[in-house]
């Protein structure tokens, strides 16, 4: 707990000058109170910047026990274990002996935490009532429900439960009277009508709907990764510590799992993401076995699919009968999620045991990823909503056994990696036919632009290592697409063209889990002259011959070859090889053998080793490569590694300097460089229109060559035989800015997912304000401490997401901007429409309270709040009325400041959101008329 938060909680107004001393004395007294008779009182309550930390055993805190019982009860409720759920939830409620921290409430303290605790108690009570109603104990809970509803008539869920209990007890008239009482309270106190669920229940009671007696059951795919169905008689269970949402708040920003209105960084948020789904259907038409044998076969298939999904970095979403679903891109986006999914699907489709064949389909598309707080550290519940799921199920019906069928979007993303055959009656379906070698990622046919200085530095190090015969490590850092691979290609071509210097290259593929150390294997294969898909016997034979040539015959030759063999086995997918590398002892033996292999090569002649994309490797390989030049002795060995900037945050080696090591960063190309690159790919005859379009793309690319080329490719369109291109994610502002190409969006989205939850949430908030923005504006969109916001901003600056523009207009304020404006566009696109609407509403409210901000920005946020509420298919009546009040209030403030033009602008804008029959309509028209008549 930060000291500043303690001061704010104790003194809402200006704290006294001795406030910090008072807090220190109170902390000292607390330590004496909490200390055991013979214990050290400093161990429980410790000073830890920027405040204090209470290290208490959760078993001694009744709130922790309450939360654990509530969690167990909710889990039982979701599993349909009504009696078990009722028992645990009763035990949780029995811990309460009255209002939380009643002594503080009596002294006038009204902390948000107290409200959260009370809401948690109500949530558990509502869940217990759901369990009791589902178990048929409606007669037992009527009395308790009547007492609670009379005390708190605004909680609609409790009213629904009371109405249902009364109706099932044959007291239909009393159920309708309970509805009328709640409606009267809502109208009188809030000016609101009951929600649709309550009105629907009233209508069902009037119609004597048969489902009210037995309750409904929702069927979903059985999995830990799916959210639980709503319990009978009520809405979905709410997170116990979440506060109730304000009236008019869009539903998915209300309190609930992962949907806090303030965007709490402690909970994952619902996000728009590009997701790929792999559907697997077990075909047992040729297998005639008893049901218990069939069950065992299904379990074997599910286990195989689960293992392959985890191997390729996906998520097992669950199964229903013979259909199994795996998802890629839900938890953490990878640039190659589609490629991972298709390769996993091909491995699964090859399954054929005991007459079982598998039909497999892959579908990709935009989805809303629905999240809830994790029940286990590595098993966060996730559900997705998107049209591509329906497309995938349709493809699954057409898929032939042993064949992978994909949609148009998946084919477009993998066109360079696989061959496809378009078959079937349904349009948009393609069968994967053959795996192709992808084109060189660095696109070496394009001009080498504005990297001569970096290439000259690398040439200098080549000559220096050759001259001094001492090892050196050069790290080349740069964001995705900045030109690292192309620079390495030019360096390799330059070195191989000179005599007396060897060059070996290894690249770390993004598919990592199945091929953990492909960079090391690539170096060995480059020397052997083999390819990764060559037969294992051929690779082993060449390895034995090469090792014998290096070290001669004898025990050392056999030891070295045997230690290096798991690298080649892992690269070709051999199971023993992969298991050998998973064992720390065997892995260390492989590292030692590889280092000896390189040393033997460097003894013969100076050697350049290039290891690309080191950020994709695990920590063990990072440590090994970082120490390589320190451990090889005095040999002419130059190791050049490429990586993205996040490598510095992962490994302490790259965060601190060492001898025999150099780091260089690749900066964005200048406008001239991007124009030269685009002109080389411009279609003949594009003319002035093409030049104007490329000028726009130059600005959009931000100096990133890959981004510029992807924009140009999107602008020129696909080839005639290509399928339709998937929808791109468009920036939030209207205008002539082109949409973000899918590949660029994927790269930035994957980088966003490397951020901690708090920093990513703050970046989402910043995307609402565009560029530039102030930290004060971010504080308006969440309830976070200013110190926490400042720390997140500093971290985002270190990670090169944000940059400081200049000092702000107020003392201590700083103006920030996105390093690349596409980061803001992608971050904004990933928020759900309902969440954007709530954020814009908050921003508008804050801007209305700060008259020094532009009114055009205020109106923009008001329009966006209403527009995104409409895009979320929610009622805009409440939000329109709210933004209308905001604009009227801003107009009144402008009038008091004697700025009539600003007042008229606010009133005219308010008319956009005011219904014709609204009394405020005439008031606004009259004010505009009076202001027009009055002299300025």
Automatic annotation (TrEMBL):
<dbReference type="Pfam" id="PF13191">
    <property type="entry name" value="AAA_16"/>
</dbReference>
<keyword id="KW-0902">Two-component regulatory system</keyword>
<dbReference type="InterPro" id="IPR011990">
    <property type="entry name" value="TPR-like_helical_dom_sf"/>
</dbReference>
<dbReference type="InterPro" id="IPR029787">
    <property type="entry name" value="Nucleotide_cyclase"/>
</dbReference>
<dbReference type="GO" id="GO:0003677">
    <property type="term" value="F:DNA binding"/>
</dbReference>
<keyword id="KW-0238">DNA-binding</keyword>
<feature type="region of interest" description="Disordered">
    <location>
        <begin position="222"/>
        <end position="271"/>
    </location>
</feature>
<feature type="compositionally biased region" description="Low complexity">
    <location>
        <begin position="234"/>
        <end position="265"/>
    </location>
</feature>
<dbReference type="InterPro" id="IPR001867">
    <property type="entry name" value="OmpR/PhoB-type_DNA-bd"/>
</dbReference>
<keyword id="KW-0804">Transcription</keyword>
<keyword id="KW-0805">Transcription regulation</keyword>
<dbReference type="InterPro" id="IPR001054">
    <property type="entry name" value="A/G_cyclase"/>
</dbReference>
<dbReference type="InterPro" id="IPR027417">
    <property type="entry name" value="P-loop_NTPase"/>
</dbReference>
<feature type="domain" description="Guanylate cyclase">
    <location>
        <begin position="279"/>
        <end position="389"/>
    </location>
</feature>
<feature type="domain" description="OmpR/PhoB-type">
    <location>
        <begin position="1"/>
        <end position="56"/>
    </location>
</feature>
<dbReference type="InterPro" id="IPR051677">
    <property type="entry name" value="AfsR-DnrI-RedD_regulator"/>
</dbReference>
<comment type="similarity">
    <text>Belongs to the AfsR/DnrI/RedD regulatory family.</text>
</comment>
<dbReference type="InterPro" id="IPR005158">
    <property type="entry name" value="BTAD"/>
</dbReference>
<dbReference type="Pfam" id="PF03704">
    <property type="entry name" value="BTAD"/>
</dbReference>
<dbReference type="InterPro" id="IPR041664">
    <property type="entry name" value="AAA_16"/>
</dbReference>
<dbReference type="InterPro" id="IPR036388">
    <property type="entry name" value="WH-like_DNA-bd_sf"/>
</dbReference>
<protein>
    <submittedName>
        <fullName>DNA-binding SARP family transcriptional activator</fullName>
    </submittedName>
</protein>
<feature type="DNA-binding region" description="OmpR/PhoB-type">
    <location>
        <begin position="1"/>
        <end position="56"/>
    </location>
</feature>
